[in-house]
Fold each of these.
Amino acid sequence: MTLSMRADFSTIAGWIAPGARVLDLGCGDGSLLSQLRESRGAAGYGIEIDDAGVLASIGNGVNVLQSDLESGLAGFDDQSFDSVILSQTLQAMRRIEAIVDEMLRVGREAIISFPNFGHWSHRLQVLAGRMPVSEKLPYQWYDTPNIHLCTIADFDAFCVQRRFRVIERVVLHDARRVSLLPNLMGSLAIYRFRSA
Amino acid sequence: MSAGVVTPQRAAFAEPLALASGATLPSFELAYETYGTLNAERSNAILICHALNASHHVAGVHAGEADSEGWWDNMVGPGKPVDTRRYFVVGVNNLGSCFGSSGPATLNPATGKPWGADFPIVTVEDWVDAQARLADRLGIARFAAVMGGSLGGMQALSWAIRYPDRIASALVIAAAPNLSAQNIAFNEVARTAILTDPDFHDGHFYEHGVKPVRGLRVARMVGHITYISDEQMAQKFGRQLREGLNFSFAPEFQIESYLRYQGEKFAEYFDANTYLRITKALDYFDPAAATGGNLARALAPATCRFLVIAFTTDWRFPAARSREIVKALVDNRRDVSYAEIAAPHGHDAFLLDTPQYHAIVRAYLERAVR
């Protein structure tokens, strides 16, 4: 099986303590968990609903549990993981508040990454009167799985409103860190936060 | 490809076997088959545990017998998910069965007559202990995997608990951590059908030259209903009639004649005393009974890796029961993967070859057995 490397993986790996217990929600082919196991000695589970992802994860030797994230994390006890990760999946979920609450219930820390809808290229497309289509958001409006897109400013406000304590925020574009005008120049945001 | 012609073998054990009931089997025999070759490190052995009505004949065919494919021939063989070119596969017939291992129909060495009703009631744990003796005999200190579906999955689970040093991975398929009241209820209907058949003679029917075939037929009919999903039955039979309504009690609906056929066929080859015992072994299986109902604590000794598989339309052992096993393993921080296979067939799906199901078993074993 081949492993994929996504732009947010190395940032996430940097936030995982050696030997940590991690839960990767929407783990796909298990690439992230596999890399965290190799580089951080991390152990844990991936959750995936898609048959192809479950099969690929098993082929990659990753612990994968086939389940629908929308139905919650009932199979996991409170505070049983160091980190619960949701990598580029948030925007496709129906019940955002429910899953974030569940992440902070079973984990001490939540790590969430999402495509930044506020990137200048998206704004230009909206100004031109069209829904944005980009490398990070490659879908047309009629076939997109992304039903809850947000900007970095939106997510910042969400964290304030829900009283989450943001420990770190990294914004990337083309796999490089963006520090100037992140909500305009960044295409991918990665947050690490806890409950207050 | 098929495993080809295989020859059943027997192993006799003179050392007594202490049973969960408190009884002791003074000696016993196990029928078994093997496929593939045990490697020099003895690290590629896979044990296949059978469910209610199956046997040691897992794969391949018996010489000179038509239609003698093993019961899991689609899973086990050269190039199959359990690839006998890579793995040394052992199929074993459980104690109390009627296909060659010591059971009610075999001779009681103390009397020289068939055991009949006197054959002790055996449990999943007793089976596993007997299987471990066979492993000793075959020179297998540690199985790369123990696997089975339904009652076979329960044996794999029991192996993981009882012999954690002798099993590297357990494949628990379409199983449950114990039977529900509804499961036990169906078993009790089946047992009552057998026990009340006038030809049963309290289990000593061999001496009377008869078989309680009527009871066995009904037992199989009721069991068979639980193996198939409602949607599968609707799709296969619906309300189809054989000829039309005759206003009689002869089979008129296709499902009636199908069930009768299944009952007839089963009663020809299966032993009533064995059926009673296997349903009891199912009813009694409950590893968490020893830990006050706490399955996580019951599974704490099990350190091997697990693959748990359930089927979406299985209403005999629904996916929720498999998720109980998964939850208990996660609570113990064990290596476990869980696949929920979309299949329309119901419980019987574990015997069929849904592509995702077979691909997962294949991929898991390729990682687990090296």
Note: Chain A has a mean pLDDT of 95.
Amino acid sequence: MYSASDLRRGLRVEVEGVPFTITDFTFVKPGKGRGMYTCKMKNLLTGSSIIRVYRDNVSLGEPKLEEKHLRFSYAEGDTLVFVDDHYEQSSLPSSVLGDLRAFLVEDMEVSILFHNDRPIDVTLPTFVEKEIIHTEPGARGNTATNVLKPAQIPGGYEIRVPLFVNQGDIVRIDTRTGEYVDRVTKK
Amino acid sequence: MTPSQPVWRVRSKVLQAIRRFFVERDFIDVETPVRLPAPALETYIDAVPSGTQFLRTSPELHMKRLLAEGHERLFQMGPCFRSGETGKFHNPEFTMLEWYRAKAGYLDMLVDAKVLLAFVTREVLGKTGFDFGGGRVEMMPVWDCLTVEEAFVQFAGWNPVAAFDPDRFDVDLVEKVEPCLPHDRPTVLKDYPAAAAALARLKPGNPAVAERWELYIGGMEIANAFSELTDAVEQRKRFEECAAQRRAAGKEVYPQDEAFLAALAKGMPESGGVALGVDRLVMLLTDSTSIEQVRPFCREQTAGVGG
């Protein structure tokens, strides 16, 4: 159990069976009144945020969370199936990844967050390498690096790349932002 | 934004402007003990121990003893300590300004507060207002003034003066009332339910409320004022109630300040008093979001000793 003095940004707590991350936290004390804590918390199951006010005598549960490394095996409809080293399967709806679904490839090692042994979230490797399957050629002689153009990678995802990147090049993408980082190999 | 004055410069000017304001108006600048055997008994204010004694949570009781000795205009600005209070607007060690006037009531003290804050703003910034938290605050126009009853009925949908509920009062004040108070000018909440009187006297003719106000600027609570309770019997009763509440909550129960109670019994003139958070005033004048930004070495201190 956590008490008021444990509360801090980033702490994961359990409220009515649901795991939350505290994203913002303020100590307030009205006039001569009792100290309270306003906590902005993100629901780890739905991603939505709530604000709760707690007293100094609050007691919050500690969620049973575990992070495991699994490999992506296959997709069946909207369900993504992952396996661990013992070929034990875990599945999650593809909606947990949103647009980042395009970065997931077979056999990729990902980190999966389990709540009470139930998988709830997937974290991709920070960087992935992808081939550019389509982009317009940049104008010859234009070496400016701050101008970007659209480019497609497999899976229907579009990123913005510098003008010097061509179709067939392999680029590195940051999965936290979904943005181009650098060019790995030139065709 | 144009580069403004460094925070420590603003802080220095605030301290000097406050002192000048009171000295020019014939107030005596006093220094009362910081370390004391009997900190004021309040249900939700915890003192930091210092050897066999405590660090003061406020200079209030000693200031009132000086009033009882016949000094009519007093002020003090200095460090106070409250255990366990750490946040954007709180630090266990902070700087408090308190001023008291004999033959005055809480609404006289409100006039003092208006003149003081307009003076300090002009002296420090050369202007009548300032930007704070993304908005503009004007110190000069008429301040908003609501009774606690009006504010609660309007913003929280119930009347704490008719039926007081301490738990609901604090939560609704924070969740419902404070966010609705205007941010573009100072706003006062006055006439607190008698149960939240603290050391204020009850209103003659309406004992359901206490003569107390709190000042909010930019959404931040900045000062608290009373028509001081001068009745020794009533004061002892309130201390005993606080002691009982602290005991029930498992908190340390401080001894009664008998010297203070004796001074009241001997006779203290009708007086008004205000306590104002100087760090928060500096936050306003420097558009700072946290008390750490306006107190030198504050972050280091909280990391090292906690509260």
Note: The interface with chain B takes residues 5, 26-36, 38, 53, 56 of chain A (CB under 8 Å).
